[in-house]
Amino acid sequence: MSGDLFASAAQERLARRAPLADRLRPTRLDDVVGQEHLLGPDRPLRRLIEGDRLSSVILWGPPGTGKTTVARLIARVTAAEFTELSAVSASVKDVRELVARAQARLGESDVGTILFLDEVHRFNKAQQDALLPSVESGLLVLIGATTENPFFEVNAPLMSRSTLFRLEPLAPEAVRSLLKRGLAAEEVAADDDALDLLVDRSAGDGRHALTSLEVAAALAVGRGGDRVSMVDAEAALGTKALRYGRDEHFDVISAFIKSIRGSDVDAGLYWLARMLDAGEDARFIARRLVILASEDVGMADPMSLVVADAAARAVEFVGLPEAGLNLAHGPWYTWPRLPSPIGSPWPWAGPGSTPGRRGSVRYRCTSATPITGGRLSWDTATATGTPTTTPPGGWTSATVQTRWRATSTTIRHHTARRARWPSGWPTAARPTGERRTMGAGDVAAVLVAAVCLVAVAVLVVAVSSLVRTLRSLRETVDVLREQTVPLVADLRAAVDHATTGLDRVDELLDTAESISTTVDAASRLTYRAFSPPLIGAAAVSAGIGRFVRRLRGGPLATGPGDAVVEAGAVELRRGRRRGGAA
Fold first, then answer.
1. What CATH architecture is 172-237?
2. With left for phi above 0 and alpha for psi between -120 and 50, is residue 239 left, alpha or beta?
3. Which pLDDT tens digit goes with each residue over 359-383?
4. pLDDT tens for each residue of 395-418
5. pTM to 2 decimal places
6. How far is 61 from 148, CA to CA, in rounded Å?
7. Which residues are CB-contacts of 116 (< 8 A; sequence separation ≥ 6)?
8. Selecting from 3.40.50.300, 3.40.630.30, 3.40.50.720, 3.30.420.40, what CATH number does the domain 35-166 have?
9. CATH code given to domain 246-415
């Protein structure tokens, strides 16, 4: 009993200390401000809530648009058990315990379970997969709330089992109605200009508007008053952080490009300042400027590409924050532009469309805060490039407005009284929409440029071919050199070896000739002695002499040894005849 009393007292104290936005949270569907397309009479979500026939849904919208409020209203109406879980702190274990309790509840009392999962995009893939069987079987009715694009952050199987409802930013009238409720709750009044400022700075965020009003009312009461003034409102607002997620990354660059294409330099500078203040990569903006200079401006002003390229190089060289001025040259230079030679680059971009709505892979669904605009100023003869790229709620960020105005003033100061356009081109503050036809001189210039480009291309091809041929010849020479050097060395060694052999043969021949001479001399001394041994020796000596002379290529003249041999041969024949006769 005492525990219940303490819990009740704690809840009462917590309710008194709750923020104004939570204290003013509606308790009936009729009290909800805005979202008439979902909660108005006979609207789909209202009929599902009132009939208690709700299936799994995903509530997608910017902060402060009523996602949690809708979930709490469902909890008041439904007969099922309403369970709330935060994806920031919950785990897979918590999900499994919740599923087990839901199964037990359904079996014991035949009561279903509705799970409100706030910030569902914070669940990872494993945590989201843990919900799939229960959601598919109907054991759990999932109500997921997210500020991020669910087609990126929520698993496709879970998306296919849920109905997507998109909540829009609150209109200024809806925000004003909320602020009036807050003034009544705080028992203070407010000046009209202070109320207008709070509405303008809210950017469709009802929670932010009520929080700012609560702070402003506290400031007014603190100084002894009961009326919120402009000073109180400005002090309470401070600087609101810009919302810049994945969707805004593409939406804002789209608005930036459309502002330049629509010849609205102020809108272009605003979106540029917003991207830089939100932390966008300056190199990404520079790349888009370079693409725009050729895609949208083209030959209407070829210098646009030079300016855009110079801005991109300056971004790399200078860096932020000074590079913001370099980037501002792009929209400022190209706004009094002429039609691109390729015509309308996006014929699908009609009134109200935004880049990324062509069913591309990047966008499976339109963004939560679409930016209107997109009609090309040269598509109609009377177009004046009126800007249609203002953000929802107008120019809302004081920081962005300050940077935008400072940049605009700086660029205007440096470009004032400068006749930048050649004669015959429009010089008014906005393009007239007239097309400039190409004359004979323009055609001749284009032809000359084309011929020069072709000549340069041919020369480059010829030089490249020559370089490749010379490189191939050099490689061939290197290969031959590597292969012939060992062969030459081997041949030289063989020649040296042959020379050595010839020298040895020559020495042997000299020795043999010396022996032959000696034997020949001996044969002369025994010329008359014709004994067979001596004759044989003489014959051998004569043979050696003949062989040496034949090798040396000399004449085969008969020497003394030959005579001895011949005489000996005659005597031998005579002796053999005498022996035979005897």
1. Orthogonal Bundle (1.10)
2. beta
3. 333 344 444 444 444 444 444 433 3
4. 455 555 555 555 555 555 444 434
5. 0.52
6. 8
7. 71, 74, 75, 82, 83, 84, 85, 143, 145
8. 3.40.50.300
9. 1.20.272.10
